[in-house]
Design a protein that fits this description.
There is one protein chain. By secondary structure, the chain is an alpha/beta fold. The chain folds into three domains: 70 residues, Winged helix-like DNA-binding domain superfamily/Winged helix DNA-binding domain (Arc Repressor Mutant, subunit A); 137 residues, Nucleotidyltransferase, domain 5 (2-Layer Sandwich), CATH 3.30.420; 154 residues, 2-Layer Sandwich (Nucleotidyltransferase, domain 5). It is built from 13 helices and 15 strands. The strands form four sheets. Strands 6-5-4-7-10 form a five-stranded mixed beta sheet. Strand 4 and strand 5 form a beta hairpin. The longest helix is centred in the C-terminal third of the chain and has 25 residues. The radius of gyration is 22 Å and the shape is globular. It starts with 6 loop residues before the first helix and ends with a helix. It binds zinc ion. Zinc ion binds next to loops.
Amino acid sequence: MYQPKSLHEIRIYHSRIIMSVLRQNGPMTKNDLALKTGLSLSSVTNILKILTERKLVTLGDKIDSFAGRPATYIVPVLDAVYSIGIDVTQYHVRFALMNLGEPILAFDKHEILFQNTDEYWDRIYAWLEAFIDSNEIDREKIGGVKMATRVAVPYSERKGVVPILLDRAPVMIDIDEISRKFSRYNFEFILNTKVAGAVYGLWEAKELSDYVSLSIGSTVGGCLVRNYEPLNVMDMSDTFGHMIVRPDGRMCSCGRRGCLETQCSSSALFRRLDFSSEDAFFQALDQGDERCRESWNNYLDDLSIALNNLFMAYDLDIVISGSMAPYLEKRRNELDLRLFREYALFPIRKRLIFSHDGEYAAAIGSAAVVINTFLSDKVK
Ligand SMILES: [Zn+2]
């Protein structure tokens, strides 16, 4: 259980809990808030005073209560801030728009092969502007735009020219130069894509304080989430993808063989076989294509080994996000069979959870960083 260390931390923590309950459930009375959050009525009253002052909640209609005095609805101000996350991968650029409410307001996706050219980054900027316009968002209310990609150096070194690692050889990008293009907004390249996906857990796996986040798409990676916080979110915690699951497997971008990343990315599953999308691959698989069947069997074996290792090491639920999440969920019987019957040393009691909007997890995770920072700053 999370233990805040100071009054200040307690205030931020309680504010986040209350805002989170209001965001999920909509307006409710103070008593219901206390019941739902498990906080005392006096704590709720104190926090609400701060949240009202900072214009994060307002008082709504009064309703009759059985206890005599009429009760007032506490209403979250959902459009206090907007935030946009952009996920840059080898084959796609994805956008997510959110405010303080749920669900996520809008998504957008463009298919484009990554290339480190002015034209490429300008194009993303133009898509961003179009995304804002089509959703009729007041630009003054945009708290930040965050871009998730696979920056391969720790947070403190993310200045100037740095390497990023998509599913091909590393590419050097000039972070400062690119950031200048987006300088109209509070812009930052801050996250490893996969860790951004874990932050999304703050929104989706709300009842879970501790879990393992694993993102599977054109790259594979993840991190440990403790007390609702991804560990080392700003740094290099995104290394699950480089655990070796097949020692004689394919060569990985890290120089070794058989890493989870190289065995279980979308390239490993279907791009190698010249399919251009998950849909095309699974269609061929369902029609009995033997090459697809072999690739899928190997894929499931390798993934099961990795998932088993993660269950054994952490004994926590695993949340799977990334573009493969919906396909794995659809075929979870096949995965479960291997994972929980064939490979398990003893019965695994933890769950495998598939994140919805899985392919947008990194974009949502980046947008969620803005929201979390906004809330923390507001109640400081
Ligand atoms: Zn590797």
